[in-house]
Design a protein that fits this description.
mainly alpha, two-stranded antiparallel ribbon, 7 helices, 8% strand, elongated
Length: 189
């Protein structure tokens, strides 16, 4: 739960044992920064845990569209948390950089880590792409089960084809039906 507290850093590193009288506006701003940093950390951790969970659960959506809608909601929440945390981090640290470098009397220079920003925003973009793909699976694509049972064929609705496709079936030793293949309408003629 680390948060960037420039006053504490200056006191610990430069002025060991010294104290500084801070105006109330600075104390208020620092408490706000602490809250925002904790919110950002919570969003990143929660989004990361949900993204790891989605990695293992998402393949279920290929077999059933009933799972696609709840998973697309879950990927939306994941993407929302990661993107909001990335925006908070970018804005907060950009403001820190500008404030610290604008004080010429302090002789402090600050810079933003380009690699960390790129890493953070690639993760946010990946979560958004995952959400768009999952949303597409829930409304636009046929599940593997729908294709196998003949409800949909290769991305088309079964009722779009004028000639129905008969399905052969046989009973196994236990008396249950088993699909053994399909005949195309052209094969019967």
């Amino acid at each position: 739960m680390y948060w960037f507290n420039p006053v504490a850093i200056i006191l610990n590193e430069l002025l060991a044992g010294a104290t500084i009288a801070l105006p109330s506006s600075v104390v208020t701003t620092l408490s706000l920064v602490k809250i925002v940093s904790n919110v950002m950390f919570g969003f990143f951790i929660t989004g990361t845990i949900l993204a790891c969970f989605c990695i293992f659960v998402t393949p279920v959506a290929i077999y059933s569209r009933w799972w696609s809608l709840p998973l697309s909601i879950l990927t939306f929440v994941t993407a929302l948390l990661i993107v909001v945390a990335s925006v908070i981090a970018t804005v907060m640290f950009s403001i820190f950089k500008n404030v610290l470098t604008s004080q010429a009397g302090l002789n402090i220079s600050a810079s933003l880590g380009l690699q960390m920003m790129v890493f953070m925003w690639i993760g946010a973009g990946g979560c958004l792409i995952g959400f768009v793909i999952q949303l597409g699976l829930s409304c636009c694509c046929a599940s593997r089960r729908d294709v196998e049972t003949g409800r949909r064929k290769e991305g088309k609705h079964a009722h779009e084809d004028a000639s129905p496709v008969p399905v052969e079936e046989e009973k196994n030793s236990e008396g249950r039906r088993r699909w053994i293949g399909r005949k195309r309408a052209s094969e019967e003629d």
